[in-house]
Amino acid sequence: MRDRLRRIQNATKTAVSEFASASAPAPVPAPAPAGADRAVRQLLADGWAEAGHQTLKRVFQFTQHIPIPAVFPRALPIVIPDTARCIRSAASGAAEITIRDLLFFDLETTGLSGGAGTVAFLAAFGRLLPSAAGGKGRPAAGHELHITQYLLLDYPGENDFLEAVLAEFTRTSLIVSYNGKAFDSQILKTRCLMNAMQPPEYLHADLLHPARRLWKRLLENCSQSTIEEQVLGLDRSDDVSGAMAPEIWFDFLRSGRTAPLMAICEHNRRDIRGLAALFAVMALIADDPVAVYEKYPYDAENLALRWHDCARYMASGYMPDYTEKERTAVVKTGTGLLQFAADNGGGRAALLLAVHLLRSGFPAEGRQRLTALAGGDYGDALRASALRFLAIDSERYRADCASAIEFTNRALELNLSETLKADFERRKNRLLEKLRITF
Length: 439
Prior knowledge:
With 439 residues, this protein is an alpha/beta fold. The protein contains 17 helices and seven strands.
């Protein structure tokens, strides 16, 4: 019975298949979008060149007007932590990343949230090359920015598009992006896997989080375009929003219109120019943070606090790639930045500087700064911290328990959290007991 049923099923499938083959019309390829050939001809006339099936390429050259140090500053990892693995001392014997190894990278995609269905249709790469001094239209010093763009014209060309894009990456490249670790690199990895390609391996420096540390408290937001306009002085007033990229590419697939597509290509090109300028400014900040402040203002207090933490590790020999001379120079610069931030109204920096002075052989100046903080127009938590350090200094180093109790009582008069108030109460009781035993 089982064999009989199987024969009946097989005969039925064969009959249905033969009927479908006889009655169904031959498949007709989907028609190309109206004006597709005309659109490609227009793009080729505008400077694009064929780089594979449904893939175009074009190259630009800009003059980089923001100077960048010829050698990466040793403090660059403080400003851009992702460069810590790339910046090496000559004494370490390791190869050091140079400006020529920088590769600025940005994608435009068919979606803004990632996922397996999101396709990259536009990629841009930028490299900094030394400019010829004295050439027409070129500055006497600086670097020229060379930008290469790849454009995917339709889905069938994705394999060739990815091959062209992957050829730009090398193992020695330092990829520089803005939110690229969370988005661009993940999209690229997904598309490589979907096309059975090996994702590239490279060093990656993402400027998003360093930018937030430097400008979050100063700007309404830390989008790349906002920083470019308000800090770097670059004009993006007539720029198309990157959020329009998916709609523009899909419109191109439907209608073959090239004008909106070229607008998003220009946006992509400006992103690379902005990335190069932003990296250059961060390198200048790392080289001499106080000197560059007037031209490129940033959150000096936030940077000073981070610099102090990093310098403390360097001073203890925690970073072996730095020579003793290099560590000393970085620590000295950090102390100067801390004083600069404190003198410009940074309360947290002022507190840290005062404590640093107390512990590094300048107790009189440290006490003076703590006293000014304790009586200044700062928040109660900061004033309480200053009074706490004054109490500790009085008790341990000046053997003056009476003054320590006075500082503690002043702190208890402030509006403190229950935890902090209990801490000062314990300190006061201990000091009173110590004073009673003494007398």
